[in-house]
Amino acid sequence: MTDSMLCESLASARRRLTEALVSAGRPTDAARLLAVSKTKPAGMIREAWSLGQREFGENYVQEALEKQAELADLGDIVWHFIGPLQANKTRAVAEHFDWVHSLDREKVARRLNDQRPEELGPLQVCLQVNVSGEASKSGVAPGELEALAEAVLSMPRLRLRGLMAIPAPARDIASQREPLARLRQALEALRRRFPEAPLDTLSMGMSDDLEAAVLEGATLVRLGTAIFGTRDTSRR
Ligand SMILES: *Cc1c(COP(=O)(O)O)cnc(C)c1O
């Protein structure tokens, strides 16, 4: 993808998000764009940064660390870890990311809390919820969410911001909305249960279901393909 193509696709992703917010009757700043840059080179991230994009999502720890090193001069860039998180990778994530969206186990939370360096602020976290049942192996089961949230809220180096989901693919917007509505309701229930917690984030909506996610209250949409083009899956 050339620089001018990236410029166009980023502009059209921004337009798409704004239009979705307007159609949903929400303020145009009610959701922001997370640019998912997995498998894409550091040069593309730098180009998107030069076009004003600040928040980037990565799925693979080693790949992300390499790109972060190349982009260390971009001081105000914000890194989100959105991939499956194994316990043996927590230190790198605690030291090199601002956000984690894929937290679904107390053991991993404890490690992140213990390993978050003092000189950095708390790590911003979303709990990943398995809203599609059998279809997904990742994410905490809805029935175990409250207990996990309570545990995370007791960890001083983590700041619980909200929930994330990757629903099973669905063809039409009505079936896309069902699991996303469940995630919204789960966040509403947590807010009632923990009124003091800073639970302001619904991380949902990808290139194929952005409109459905915005209708259901997404505040952070994670777009990869729509911004950076299709991924070369043979690289992984
Ligand atoms: C890859 C990925 C995305 C982006 O998906 P697209 O369909 O390319 O927009 C969003 N969220 C997560 C967790 C991902 O792994």
Automatic annotation (TrEMBL):
Alphabetized CDD domains for the sequence: PLPDE_III_Yggs_like
The UniProt entry, under InterPro entries, shows: Ala_racemase_N, PLP-binding_barrel, PyrdxlP_homeostasis
The keyword Transport is assigned to this record: no
Q: Which UniProt keywords apply?
A: Pyridoxal phosphate
Name the domain of life this protein comes from: Bacteria
Fetch the Pfam families from UniProt: Ala_racemase_N (PF01168)
Modification type N6-(pyridoxal phosphate)lysine: residues: 38
Where do the Alanine racemase N-terminal domain residues begin and end? 30-231
Coiled-coil annotated residue ranges, if any: none
Query: Which family would the database say this protein is a member of?
Result: Belongs to the pyridoxal phosphate-binding protein YggS/PROSC family.
* HAMAP family, sorted: PLP_homeostasis
The task this protein performs is described as: Pyridoxal 5'-phosphate (PLP)-binding protein, which is involved in PLP homeostasis.
Q: What PANTHER family does the annotation carry?
A: PROLINE SYNTHETASE CO-TRANSCRIBED BACTERIAL HOMOLOG PROTEIN (PTHR10146), PYRIDOXAL PHOSPHATE HOMEOSTASIS PROTEIN (PTHR10146:SF14)
Protein name listed in UniProt = Pyridoxal phosphate homeostasis protein
